[in-house]
Design goal:
- The N and C termini of chain A lie far apart (46 Å).
- In chain A, 32% of the residues are buried.
- In chain A, 30% of the residues lie in helices and 35% in strands.
- The first copy, chain A, has one domain: Aminopeptidase (3-Layer(aba) Sandwich).
- By secondary structure, the first copy, chain A, is of the alpha+beta class.
- The longest helix of chain A has 15 residues.
- At the A-B interface, α2, β3, β4, α3 and β5 of A face α2, β3, β4, α3 and β5 of B.
Chain lengths: 152, 152
């Protein structure tokens, strides 16, 4: 298909339902659909309420949202403010069209523009296709850290 | 020593120099002193400027800052807003007085008060004393994720 039909733009509030659909699609791919417990109103409020804590790009084809790249600001006491790329998702039927790279390139541009010291994210150690995708960039991989969480 | 002499309180701007000293101490312990490239003005601005992106507790003994617990808001597309505990540090000569537990307990109280869905952090896989400390709480450990970063 013609890449000129793919539009990368900043997410708006009206995109939230389509974004949530993609988030649930990724969770199913990561074998964790049951882990998505966030509510839709909380998702919208967190992105477009009085004190936003997330921002996102969307990839649009013919008016349909087929990809997102959602981030928040991480504060590293070593490196200062960094862009934490929470999710980069392309709908399964729209892969292999370069949409992931277009989203990633725009994320890098935004991070530079906002003077973040870098970009961080995580990848599952068995998700080889994602690891291969990221390895095309100048990325450091660090498996030495263990994630810890306490649900409240 | 008498625990009643230990005061846990919210960090103020005047605490920043002592906090930065503790951050550098931890980096040295983690064999990464050279990795601390954040500037002091950026640190202060990020915590106490117009749009704060970090918040912190301090542990004080006789007017001296001997510990910190610094966090930011993570947005999980699965779990919503979570408290991301970036650093919990107790100065080496003040360990084994329960200060880490006092900081952790107050972090948990704040996370509940602010209605965060949980608390997240990371630990280095060789830092057994930290892993043992966290294991006293109802914590899930997940080594399946690889950290990725791109410095800009």
């Amino acid at each position: 298909m013609d890449n000129s039909k793919i539009l990368i733009r900043v997410a708006e509030e009206k995109d939230c339902p389509a974004m949530m659909t993609l988030i649930q699609e990724l969770a199913a791919y990561e074998r964790a659909a049951h882990e998505v417990t966030v509510t839709f109103p909380h998702f919208v409020e967190s992105g477009f309420g009085e004190h936003p804590v997330w921002w996102s790009l969307v990839a649009e084809v013919d008016g349909k949202i087929v990809g997102i790249a959602l981030y928040y600001i991480r504060y590293s006491t070593w490196k200062g403010q960094r862009l934490y790329l929470e999710d980069i998702i392309v709908s399964e039927q729209w892969r292999r069209h370069g949409i992931g790279s277009m989203l990633m390139d725009e994320i890098i541009r935004i991070a530079r523009e906002k003077k973040f010291s870098g970009i961080m994210w995580q990848v599952l150690d068995w998700n080889q296709s994602a690891i291969d995708f990221y390895a095309k960039y100048k990325v450091s991989f660090d498996p030495e850290w263990i994630n810890c969480h306490m649900d409240l």
